[in-house]
Amino acid sequence: MKRRYSLTYLIGESFKSLWRNGVMSIASVTVLMSCLIVIGGFALIILNINKNVDRLGLMNEMVAFADYDLTDEEIASIKDQIDKLENINSVDHITKDEALEELKANAGEFGDVYAELEGEENPLPDTFHITYNDNSKASTLYYQLIQIDGIYKVNNRLNVANTIDSIKNGISIVGVWFLAILFVVSVFVIVNTIKLAVFARRNEIEIMRYIGASSWFITIPFIFEGIIIGLLSGGIAYFIVYLIYRYIENNAASNIQMLSILPFTEVNMLLLAGFVIIGILTGIIGSCTSLRKYLKA
Amino acid sequence: MIDFKNVKKVYSNGVIALGGVDFHVNDGEFVFIVGHSGAGKSTLMKLLLREEIVTSGQVFVNNHDLTKMKNYRVPKYRRELGVVFQDFRLLPNKTVYENVAFAMRAVGTPAKKIRKRVPAILSTVNLYDKFDCFPSELSGGEKQRVALARALANNPKIIIADEPTGNIDPKMSMEIMNLLIKINRLDKTVIVVTHDQKLVDYFQKRVITLNDGKIVDDHVGGMFE
Ligand SMILES: Nc1ncnc2c1ncn2[C@@H]1O[C@H](COP(=O)(O)OP(=O)(O)OP(=O)(O)O)[C@@H](O)[C@H]1O
Ligand SMILES: [Mg+2]
Does ligand 1 have an atom closer than 6 angstroms to the CB of B38? Predict the structure, then answer.
C-alpha cells in the first residue's frame, strides 16, 4: 500500500498546538523577537562600522619611486605592470618634471632656486601615486610593488592599513561571539516552548508510539510549530528593525556628516535571510532536542 | 506467532519482574494471562510491544527477533500489533471517529482508505452511532470499544489487551470480552491480561498463570483446576 502522510493535517496540528498553548506561544514569540532584534541590530551596527572603516581605508595610498635614468619605455612598462596588479584602484604617474614644477609652485617666490635643476640636472625620480581598494591586502600589494624592476622604493602606510584591519577583525570576532550567544538563547527559548507543547501532548505522543507512528510523523508538527514561532518572530523583528533603521537613516545620518550609513535596501535581504534561517534552525533544533526523550522507542 | 525463550527481565532498580519464562502462542490462538499483582504480566506485555528489552533470553513475534531489533525498526513492528489498555488512552479532544482515523493517519494511510475503513471498524465494535461523540460523552465500556476499534484500525495480526475490563462494570466487561472473542474469530491472535476470574472461567480458553515472574500453570480451561 502506498503511504501518504497528509501535510495539511500535520501543519494544522501545529497551529492547533500553538493556539492551545496561547500565552506560552505569545511569550516565546516576544522573547525570540527581542533576541532577533538585538541580533539584527548588532549585525547592522557591525556592517556599518565596517563600511565606515573601509571608507577610511580608501584614503590609503602608496607612492612608488622609480629608479633614476630610466627611459620612457621602461617607465611605461613599470606603469603597465602596476596596472596589472590586483587590488589597484588608480595609478597616477607623476614625471620628474611635474614633480619639480610642483616643488617650484610650493616654494612660491623662492621657486627660482630650483631653476638650475631643470632638464638633465633634475634629481627627482618619477613617481607613481597608487590607491587601492582592499586594506587587508595592502601588505601583499606593497611586496608586489617593490619587486617590480625599476622601482627602488615604496612609501606606504602599512601601519595604518594594518591597524584598520585589526580593528575590523576585532569587531568581527566580538560580533560573531555575541551573535552566537544570542542564537543559543533563541534556541533555548524555542526549546522551552516546544517542551511545554510536547508535555501537553505527551499522551498523544505515547499513543502514537504504541500505534507505530514513525518518529518523524510525531516530530514534524513540533518542528512546524517551532518554525512558525521562528518565522512569526522573524517577521515582526524585521518590521521593527526596518522602522528603527529608517528613522536613523533619515535623521541621525544627515546630522553626522562623517558617517555614511548603508541604505536599508542594501541590507534588507541579508537581514531577512538571517531571520528566516535562524527561525527555521531554532525550530528544528528546538523540536528535536525536546522530543528526544519521548522517541527512544 | 509468539515465542518466549527463557526470558528474564530485571529492572534497573533490581526488581526481577520475570525470572525465566517459556511459552509459545500459535497464530489465531486466544490466551488469558493471569496472576497476582506484581507477578510480571504487564512486563510481559511491554516486552511484546518492545517497550522494554529482555535482560536475557529471546522473544520472537511474527518471525521478528525482538531482542535484536534496532530502535528505528520498532514503529513499523508495532503496526503488527493492536494494543488496548485498562485506562483506554483515548485522545480527549478528538471524536470517536477521529480517534480511530488518527491511528491510521499516523501510519500514513491514504485519506480515502481511512474514510472507508473507519465506519466499518466502528460497526464491528457496535459503535457506529457514536462516531461523532467525544470520549467524555461515553461510558467506560464504550470508551474501551473505541480503544478496541483503534487497535484494529491498522489490521494487525495480534491484539494485546492489558486488563481491558479493569475499569468497567461486569456487564460491559462481558461485552468487551465477547468482542475480543469475535476479533479472535477474524483470525487474529488475542492475548488478554485479566484479574477477572469469572470471565476466565466462563470462556474456557487457554490460561497462562504467572507467579513471581514465573509461569506456574499453562492449560486450556478455567482459572483453577
Ligand atoms: N519500570 C519499572 N521499573 C522498575 N520496576 C518495575 C517497573 N515496572 C514494573 N516493575 C516491577 O516489576 C514487577 C512486575 O510488575 P508488573 O507491572 O509486570 O506486574 P503486573 O503483573 O502487571 O501487576 P498488576 O496486576 O498489579 O498490574 C513489580 O514488582 C513491579 O514493581
Ligand atoms: Mg499490570
Answer: yes
